[in-house]
Amino acid sequence: MRIFIIIxxxxxxxxxxxxxxxxxxxxxWNHYYELEGQSPDLRExxxxxxxxxxxxxxxxxxxxxxxxxxxxxxxxNVVARMxxxxxxxxxxxxxxxxxxDTYKQNIRDFFKHDPDLGDAFWAFMREETDELPEHIYKxxxxxxxxxxxxxIREIEIPHEVAVQxxxxxxxx
Length: 172
Known about the structure:
Elements: E1 2-8, E2 18-22, H1 25-36, H2 40-47, E3 61-62, E4 65-66, E5 68-70, E6 78-80, H3 82-87, H4 92-110, H5 115-125, H6 136-143, E7 150-156, H7 159-169
Antiparallel strand pairs: 1-2, 1-7, 3-4, 5-6
């Protein structure tokens, strides 16, 4: 039996560190993703329909970066980058189509391991539904490299200690 210690790079307290007793690193990671998927912060991050400080933000990028710029009217309007406006000949329909197509493709790319989650996220962002599948949070915890940097360390337990631990866990 081994212990896997899972440590977030930005941990603040010992409560942020998790120990998983298992023989499989894969099982340890899966346990972490399950628990992280329950995090209120992660759920808010996924459910936020805003175009910044959310999961949605990562999908509003093209090969040149973030697709929006602040408008100069200081009323916090958001407009497409100038190169996109020029490319689309300042035609609002073409700009919106470019933005939507790029956004949707980025969602598909991110959810490539579970395309149904991508469809569900797209529908949620378009306000066609107010619900997201429960396992989307685990998926985001697992595949979003920007969510949280986590390290895992493996510790082997001598057989005698593992037997004693099992004995005490069984109420002996």
